[in-house]
């Protein structure tokens, strides 16, 4: 505590500095009691890095915030994405793209593990895979753990991969450096146009779950089918049926229309505060 007097103005200024969750306002009642006064003006300054981050995926009728202890990255990538790496009080380091949480280090294994397991449960043949998106590297890591022969990782934004390797290294776990992983930068759907037919046992579509990406996947579904082996499996993360049931239903309709079958899996992810869904289809011989 410090104080300064200004007798010519009949003013005393008190400065209170506190740490942790204790508020300096506890001293206000003491000042009111011990010092005769006509008026008190209070000004607060938060000098910590703690802030609240709006969860744009909140359940309708509710509002949720993440408590942020530190901002590690905050920039617009050359690909035009707003990339943030935030240190969350509850979930550790986390990747946000365009203000939406992608993965948090505390529970990312639930997301990537369920994603890959959804496909391998339908067909255990893991000779090779294509990953569309998935810049955090978690799906690539899981594929390597399942002994895939080789993995082609199609990623639009190398800066997402760079910051995740820097701050979320346990998620990617050096998958990019593995000789079995080939990174193909740029528009994935343009890149796969030159891929030979029936190349992959598994295709993982790890894009945003919004209507734009639903339309994009639908538009390119013939090419995705072309590069998938007969009996192969395509799996996509499709968002939360709890929070956006129509969106998940739209994904299911596209998969059922193109493959004649679809299977929906789910896992509860604490940082998302909801069940998260993955849909899979088998390309019939």
SSE map:
Blueprint: E1 2-6, E2 11-15, H1 28-34, E3 51-54, E4 65-76, E5 82-88, E6 92-97, E7 100-104, H2 108-120, E8 128-133, H3 138-145, E9 150-155, H4 158-167, H5 169-172, E10 181-185, H6 188-191, E11 200-206, H7 211-219, H8 221-227, E12 228-239, H9 245-259, E13 263-269, E14 274-282
Descriptive report:
The protein is an alpha/beta fold. The chain has 3 domains: about 1-35, no CATH class; about 50-105, Spermidine synthase, tetramerisation domain (Spermidine Synthase, Chain: A, domain 2, Roll), CATH 2.30.140; about 110-280, Rossmann fold, CATH 3.40.50.150. About 25% of the residues lie in helices and about 35% in strands. The strands form 3 sheets. A 7-stranded mixed β-sheet has the order 10-9-8-11-12-14-13, with helices on both faces. It has a 5-stranded antiparallel β-sheet with strand order 3-4-5-6-7. α2 (about 110-120) crosses α3 (about 140-145). The radius of gyration is 25 Å and the shape is elongated. The model has no long low-confidence stretch (mean pLDDT about 90).
Relative helix content: 25-40%
| Number of H- or I-type helical stretches | 9
* CATH structural architecture of the largest domain: 3-Layer(aba) Sandwich
What is the count of β-strands? 14
Which sequence of strands runs across the widest sheet?
10-9-8-11-12-14-13
Beta-sheet strand percentage?
Answer: 25-35%
What name is given to the CATH topology of the largest domain?
Rossmann fold
Radius of gyration: 25 Å
Instruction: Characterize the overall form.
Output: elongated
CATH superfamily of the largest domain: Vaccinia Virus protein VP39
SSE order, one letter for each helix or strand:
EEHEEEEEHEHEHHEHEHHEHEE
Domain count, please report it. 3
How far is the N terminus from the C terminus? 77 Å
Low-confidence stretches: none
Mean pLDDT: 90
Query: Which CATH class of the largest domain?
Result: Alpha Beta
Describe the largest sheet.
Answer: 7 strands, mixed
Quickly give the structural class: alpha/beta
């Amino acid at each position: 505590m410090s104080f300064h007097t200004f007798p010519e103005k009949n003013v005393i200024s008190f400065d209170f500095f506190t740490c942790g969750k204790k508020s300096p306002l506890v001293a206000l009642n003491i000042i009111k009691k011990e010092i005769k006064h006509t008026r008190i003006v209070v000004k607060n300054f938060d000098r910590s890095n703690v802030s609240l981050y709006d969860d744009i995926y909140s359940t309708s009728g509710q509002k949720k915030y993440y408590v942020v202890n530190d901002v590690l990255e905050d920039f617009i990538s050359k690909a035009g994405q707003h990339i943030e790496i935030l240190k969350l009080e509850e979930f550790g380091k986390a990747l946000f793209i365009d203000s939406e949480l992608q993965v948090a280090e505390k529970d990312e294994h639930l997301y990537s593990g369920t994603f890959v397991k959804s496909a391998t449960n339908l067909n255990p043949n893991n000779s090779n895979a294509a990953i569309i998106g998935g810049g955090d590297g978690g799906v690539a890591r899981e594929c390597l753990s399942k002994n895939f022969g080789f993995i082609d990782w199609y990623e639009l934004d190398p800066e997402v991969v760079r910051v995740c390797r820097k701050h979320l290294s346990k998620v990617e776990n050096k998958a990019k450096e593995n000789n079995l992983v080939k990174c193909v930068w740029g528009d994935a759907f343009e890149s796969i146009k030159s891929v030979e037919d029936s190349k992959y046992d598994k295709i993982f579509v790890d894009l945003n779950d919004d209507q734009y990406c639903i339309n994009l996947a639908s538009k390119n579904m013939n090419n995705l089918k072309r590069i998938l082996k007969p009996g192969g499996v395509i799996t996509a993360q499709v968002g939360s049926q709890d929070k956006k049931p129509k969106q998940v239903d739209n994904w299911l309709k596209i998969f059922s229309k193109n493959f004649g079958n679809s299977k929906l899996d789910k896992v509860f992810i604490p940082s998302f505060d909801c069940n998260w869904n993955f849909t899979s289809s088998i390309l019939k011989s």
